[in-house]
Amino acid sequence: MTNIRVITDSACDLPQAIVDELGIDIVSLTIRFGEQEYVDRVELSPTAFWAKCKEVTTLPETAAPSPGAFQVAYERALADGCDGVIVLTLSSLLSATHQSAVLASENVPQLPIRVVDTRAVSMAQGLIVIDVAERAAAGDDLDSLVARAEALREHTGVIATIDTLEHLIKGGRIGGAKALLGQVLSIKPLLELKDGVVAEAGRQRTRNKALATCADVARAKAPLLRLAIMDGACADRNVLEGLVADIATQHPLVLADIGPTVGTHGGPGIIGLAWIESF
Fold this sequence. Notes:
It is a single chain. The protein is of the alpha/beta class. Helix content is 39%, strand content 25%. The protein has two domains: 4-154, Rossmann fold; 155-277, 2-Layer Sandwich (Hypothetical Protein Tm841, Chain: A,domain 3). The chain is built from eleven helices and 13 strands. Helix 5 (122-137) packs antiparallel against helix 6 (142-152). The longest helix is centred in the middle third of the chain and has 16 residues, at 122-137. It starts with a strand and ends with a strand.
């Protein structure tokens, strides 16, 4: 029976209870508010992140982990007697995190290390990590785990909605006049993950309609292997829970808090669903 360590990065938004249960090692991105820099999940929780966002007038910035941060994790796995490591990173099209993980692997040649680009982020990435970690715990070897991760990413999806355009305005991602028009019309953009990047997936006029659309999109993919709700400082997560209660899924629904990587651009009130289709 092999002993493979599963490593991911903090963009996965995995609940800590799951991380602890499955022995997942998380390498953190960093978040900078002006001159102050914080290590995600270590020095700044999602709750603290959202509180700080309310205090500042400009968006925080996120930075990928250094190769050195991944090397520390690899050396930790080596010291723990692991037979190998599989690293599941957020999309390489969204961050330099994947590149850092690959570069670091070259510095620990005595340990088999495989780095997989999930082409995902938040709980789309997180669900892949959960699945692979469960199989690692059951004794699957490194090649089998890599093949599983590569298969899972072809069946993974995301749909989300943004409640406010304020963070997009602050980040310069949308013109002020267009943003104002969107607010006046109460337009709620829908977002999806497509080919490793975040893309617009439509619009709804109200929050409730946007939530219903998110549920409908996921329901159309059922039966599902896994399903998660992720949100950033939302008061209406229970509404989305109710809307997806009838969706057939093999594993229990996972509830997760969105952290800085996605939250920086999505803003408070971002909420969505991530899933892996049965295959």
